[in-house]
């Protein structure tokens, strides 16, 4: 499976651009309807007087110097510095507060002049970036297997944690195919092929499903039967028809007793398969960890048919419940109830995990969705077996490889069929072939084929089939469908009109939710929600399900922007969101009932766009208090694309600042002011703190408050442009005064995700071109997506200077191209 011999590093030394101001041609991404100009000598003088004081050879603020700045040559000799200047000037962050600023629109003219120069260089010497091969990450692997075999898997069971670069998990430069990684794909292929086809000779094994400590054990688990509470549910693949044993483990108190053992009523646990009760377990309130079975309960062997089935272990709900006479409301997660282990509060039992063990005495394999997908033909005689297997291989293999199979491809895969069929028969042979397909580098890796005649260092168009793969993984996070494949194989996808039509078709498909659950979730850092654990003493209403609801709220919101082709700026201005009953109650909304999410209008005038989403407010908090620093940094980095530099060495963190003074608890603002008294901290915090303080009325879990530590909150601040802001509404308004950097930041992140590589300074002209093209269309998101898809960065590639030979299509399974 080694790919080292087939992939050469695509990164070549950066070219040195040489151009002068008088050679510039009209910008490919002009930003103004009319061109504003000033004499280069005037703008040079502005830079030296305004910027070179801090960005001198001695001080090098921001790690670069402008002491020798020359507008006529900066784009050619220092393109990275030119792009940095454009970014800072567009956000209005430079010069910093308190420093002299040139009069009038001088800085705007300087910005536009730099942009025209960089854009003109890009026209003369285009650079579409360099990307090595990609491999399927966990999420892509799961979606691809689901499309291919109708099998839902958890790739975490086999594949290592995805390494992130530029905050995304699909960036090629960190997807190194080590021996361990390749071995994990082999293990996955073996296991998934057996799950998909079933295994009448499966050996006994145990699968464990853990229940989070933060899970609400008083609420209904979505996939469990009605009339139950807590516990857990999961889809489990039963490999064969046979007997299985189900067991549960319950949580204990610190002294080994059963959590909830002091309840004045007996409890039962219901085991169900696909919603049908198969066992009922009685809980002995006197159970103790010291007993032989500890706090474990298990069923007798129960017959279950093969295939994917929803297994649930949940408490039977009783009319009795916890007496919350000292603490209300309570989230009924384990940390919450441990607070209340005392006589005054009655709590209920909590499940730690449940397991499925089997099969015992397997009797065969029943029909399943995956078997129906795989066995598109059934041989009636021994002579029909191999031809039938070839048809199955050709269909599944072509979809998995994202191109038609060659004669060599089929020969390689069928060799695995022949080997397995000798000892196990037709179905065993097909399983071996499916395993070979899933283990093939043509499935696992995504690499653009380059003609051997292509000139190293040249820019070439991506082939129609490779473009289909790029498009599908960008918009859907999975394999191309039959329609896209058909268009690609006829060589039509390289036509811009066809490409646009296919993109629009795919955006209308439900699978385009990948742009919200995959792209937006990573761009907005929603995965960090699970890293914050609010203190249960301070936030007893918080539980795991609430955190999941918060993440789903933002994902559904972004999905609606894409589906309805709304303006990107609705991220900041929307007066609506998506909630279910629990989240609505958390926000103080009424008239929302049930677990399903629906679109509602904000009833709280302080909530607006994603700045009012509980998930964003949670992920930018500490467990026991809000963090204006984290919130301000998040806005600057994620939304504005201008992250503050890391703190200087030997400067104490804000957490070290005393929490109290003269016997009085300090507010977060007071602690920040003490921290900012350090001159080395002030230069960055003057940008960060006002932004974060504007959101400080929202507590750790996103609920509105007006006091902290019994002191009135003071959220007043001066935005770096001098605008006074006191809350989320004012923050929204001041951000929208400069929409260009907000849109460019979105385009930058979308492009990185789409092309699977880090965005470099040389991508600046393309990003500006996309932003300019959608400005007159009110920045509608589908138009932004189309702009990325039509860009050279997406449709072209650079031929590596040292291009290793690629194996021909159909090289034997186990090789990589």
Verbal overview:
Residues 1-32, 324-329 and 803-817 have low confidence and may be disordered. Strand 17 (707-708) and strand 18 form a beta hairpin. The radius of gyration is 30 Å and the shape is flat. It has 817 residues and is an alpha+beta fold. Among the domains are: 21-124, no CATH class; 205-367, Jelly Rolls, CATH 2.60.120.260; 532-636 and 644-735, no CATH class; 739-798. Residues 134-197 form the DUF1587 domain. Residues 463-589 form the DUF1592 domain. Residues 721-794 form the DUF1585 domain. It comes from Gemmatimonas groenlandica.
Can I get a quick summary?
Helices cover 38% and strands 12% of the residues.
Cα distance spanning the termini: 10 Å
Tally of strands: 21
Shape: flat
Largest sheet data: 5 strands, antiparallel
Overall pLDDT metric: 88
Helix content bin: 25-40%
> Runs with pLDDT <50, length 5+?
1-32, 324-329, 803-817
Rg (C-alpha, Å): 30 Å
Number of helices: 28
Class computed from helices, strands and strand pairing:
alpha+beta
Query: How much of the polypeptide forms β-strand, as a percent range?
Result: 5-15%
Domain DUF1587: 134-197
Domain DUF1592: 463-589
Protein name: DUF1592 domain-containing protein
InterPro entries: DUF1585 (IPR011478), DUF1587 (IPR013036), DUF1588 (IPR013039), DUF1592 (IPR013042), DUF1595 (IPR013043)
Please write out the topology.
Elements: H1 40-50, H2 74-77, H3 79-91, H4 106-124, E1 134-135, H5 138-149, H6 179-197, E2 205-210, E3 228-238, E4 241-250, E5 268-273, E6 276-282, E7 296-298, E8 302-304, E9 307-316, H7 334-339, E10 351-364, H8 369-374, H9 382-401, H10 407-424, H11 426-439, H12 441-444, E11 445-446, E12 459-461, H13 464-475, H14 482-489, H15 496-507, H16 514-523, H17 544-563, H18 570-573, E13 576-579, H19 581-586, E14 598-601, H20 614-619, H21 628-639, E15 660-661, E16 664-665, H22 668-676, H23 679-693, E17 707-708, E18 711-712, E19 717-718, E20 724-725, H24 728-736, H25 739-755, H26 764-775, H27 781-790, H28 792-795, E21 796-798
